Amino acid sequence: MEVIISETKQKLGAVAASKGAQIIQESIKNNGKATIIVATGASQFEMLNELIKKDIDWSKVTGFHLDEYIGMSVDHPASFRKYLKERFVDKVGLKSFYYINAESDPEKECERLKEIISKVQIDVAFIGVGENGHLAFNDPPADFETEEPYIVVNLDEDCRKQQMGEGWFDVIEDVPKQAISMGVQQILKSNSIICAAPDARKATAVKGVVEGEITPMVPASILQKHNKTWIYLDNDSANMLSD
Question: What is the count of structural domains for the chain?
Answer without folding.
Answer: 1
